[in-house]
Amino acid sequence: MTAVQHQESRTEDPRFPVPRPDEAHWPGLATPPRNAFRARIARSIFERAVAPLPVRVEYPDGRVLGAGGAGAPVMQMVRPANVYHRLGCDAKIGFGEAYMTGDWTTAPGSDLADVLSPFAARLTQLVPPALQRLRHLAERTQPIGEENSKENSRSNISRHYDLSNELFEAFLDETMTYSSAWFEPGDDLVSAQERKIDGVLDMARVRAGDSVLEIGSGWGALAIRAARERGARVTTLTLSSEQQALTRQRAEAAGVGHLVDVRLQDYRDATGSYDAVVSVEMIEAVGEEFWPTYFTALDTLLKPGGRVGLQSITMPHDRMVATARSYTWIHKYVFPGGIIPSLHSIATNLDEHTSLSIVERRDLGPHYAHTLALWRERFCANWPQLDGAFDDTFRRMWEFYLAYCEAGFRVGYLGVSQLGLARNPFSGG
Predict the structure, then answer these.
(1) Which residue(s) pair with 363 in the sheet?
(2) What is the pLDDT of residues 162-191, one digit of tens each?
(3) What is the pLDDT of residues 404-425, one digit of tens each?
(4) Residue 89 annotated among the catalytic residues of the structure
(5) DSSP 8-state code for residue 123
(6) CA–CA gap between residue 78 and residue 93 (Å, rounded)
């Protein structure tokens, strides 16, 4: 019996709750893929990577790895062999799946984002350079069926945003805003989200009587605020039928239904000419192949003298290039077809495909980490009202998603920026 098999044989411990994914809802998830050679390599890489990190990794046999002392966040390896097999067969998906199935978990009193943050901070150094050069042999690329063509975009969006409005109501604030807030001292989440929305509207110079196009409705918070607080007429686009229905209800309840036109429409089918165009954290769902089309649409739909208010999650350009085709846990379980741009890629696309350029910028990276922490806190507190509609595997999946993203923003691997886009008034464009 190998050391890995020996550890696995000792992990059926009643102290650890063990999710058993239902095969009908989670086909193949309960049983990890098996590849002994890759599992041995994954174990070696993992143990080498974790050794200097300020965490404690506890094994069922009492062994502890990591440089974290007393009080450090604790990762408990419940079924180590399963973890190594999942990592060895597909590291970018297997680590999250191992958490979903309870192959590893956090110790009582340890926060999941605290465990993940040290890994996120050293993400580019976890795998030795020699092996990084071979990653294309082991990593999957994004499926053709999830590229964001018109045909695929509707199903990609539906897989996330049509899960149920009740799910999102359980962790978002009453504005139902699903993007980074902008906090100032003393703010609650509602105030911070309203400040963020005002920041985007200010970037776009939205005023009374303006016609505004919003690409990506969410649940209507920006459209409603633009109409109610600024007297704008808003056309807002979504591909989610759930979002469309609730946004219409919310606009009517706010007394601005006559000013807010909610369309189930792809941005590529939008027509008309608008005083301002706004788009908040929608570009991440566009796909790199379609960025020129997206930015061209912003330019084409904007009246002369108009402004664009854009909010985008970002990542360093070199990491974006290195991971552009990778198929990750986030793609498989949360955002199919997505890719996060870099600020460089945004500026380059604007320069090559539009008459627009970035004239104003506000960075909110740490604010997103705090936003995600509040969302996760609310999700966990309100889980009992969702229990039954979603199973325990889904709960662990959603916790991992929120904590994983929070860790990325905490350490600066991810950022988020509000951008004001405009044409050069002296160019004649």
Answers:
(1) 417
(2) 678 899 999 999 999 999 999 999 999 999
(3) 999 999 999 999 999 999 998 7
(4) no
(5) G
(6) 18
Report how far residue 200's alpha carbon sits from residue 339's, in angstroms, rounded to the nearest whole number. 22
And the tokens for 149? Answer: 């063509």
Provide the residue count of the chain. Answer: 429
CA distance 274 to 32: 52
Who contacts 163 (Cβ-Cβ below 8 Å, separation ≥6)?
A: none
Task: List the structure tokens of 67.
Answer: 């440089």
**pLDDT range class, residue 327, cuts 50, 70, 90:** confident
User: What's the pLDDT tens digit per position in 372-395?
Assistant: 999 999 999 999 998 788 999 999
What is the Rg, in whole angstroms, of the alpha carbon atoms belonging to the chain?
23
Amino acid at 368: Y
Residue 337 pLDDT level (bands cut at 50, 70, 90): confident
Residues 162/242, Cβ–Cβ less than 8 Å: yes
pTM of the model: 0.90
Alpha-carbon distances of 77 from 36, 96, 101, 350, rounded to whole Å: 18, 13, 12, 47
For residue 271, the number of C-alpha atoms closer than 13 Å in the C-beta half-sphere is 1
Pairing of strands 233-238, 260-264: parallel
CB 298 within 8 A of CB 272: no
Summarised one tens digit per residue, pLDDT across range 14-63 is: 444 556 788 888 999 999 999 999 999 999 999 999 999 999 999 999 99
Tokens of 165: 């409005």
Q: Which CATH number fits domain 145-423: 3.40.50.2300, 3.90.1150.10, 3.40.50.300, 3.40.50.150?
A: 3.40.50.150
428 dihedral zone (left: phi>0; alpha: psi -120 to 50; beta): left
List alpha helices for 90-220, DSSP H.
91-100, 112-121, 129-132, 135-138, 150-161, 165-169, 189-203
Query: CA 141 to CA 323: how far, in whole Å?
Result: 9
C-alpha 273/C-alpha 271 separation (Å) is 7
Q: CATH 3.40.50.150 region(s) of the chain?
A: 145-423
Terminal Cα-to-Cα distance of the chain (whole angstroms): 73
What is residue 150's predicted lDDT score, i.e. its pLDDT? 63
Beta-carbon count within 10 A of 320 CB: 18
From 405, 407, 419, 422, the catalytic residue: 405
What is the distance between the alpha carbons of residues 10 and 60, in angstroms, rounded to a whole number? 7
Query: What is the SS3 assignment for 283?
Result: helix
